Amino acid sequence: MNDQYEVEWAQIADDDLTEIIEYIAADNVTAAKKILNAIETRAQSLVRFPKRGRIVPELKEFGITWYRELIFRHWRIVYRIEVSTVLIVGVFDSRRNLQDILINRLLRF
């Protein structure tokens, strides 16, 4: 088993991040850059210990346990672990009701 994984972003997760950063940048470009860097750094930290994120609770209650998440402020970085890759599948605002969003989106992967 690898002791290091490659972190990849699904296009839809990249789109999520772009939307978040553009929204923040409309008010404060400097803050948007800092948030972008922090979220990317947090996601990249999964290269060594991808199982440290918790199983997504909204999915776990349905028996779906292969998706995990890291929390950064009020964003949830949702991912799944593959053979030697961590695939980021979404970045969500935790203030929203995520159950329907997650189930509909993540079951497509």
Question: What is the general shape?
Answer: globular
Number of strands: 5
Give me the CATH fold name: YaeB-like fold
Helix content: 25-40%
Average pLDDT score: 90
Cα distance, first to last residue?
23 Å
Number of domains: 1
Order of helices and strands: EHHEHEEEH
Q: Which architecture would the CATH scheme give at its second level?
A: 2-Layer Sandwich
**Strands in their spatial order, largest beta sheet:** 1-5-4-3-2
What oligomeric state best describes the polypeptide chains here? single chain
Biggest sheet, open or closed, and with what strands and sense? 5 strands, mixed
The secondary structure category is: alpha+beta
> CATH homologous superfamily?
RelE-like
Q: How much of the polypeptide forms β-strand, as a percent range?
A: 25-35%
> Which runs of at least 5 residues are low in confidence (pLDDT < 50)?
none
Q: Measured on Cα atoms, how large is the radius of gyration?
A: 14 Å
Number of helices: 4
The first-level CATH class name: Alpha Beta
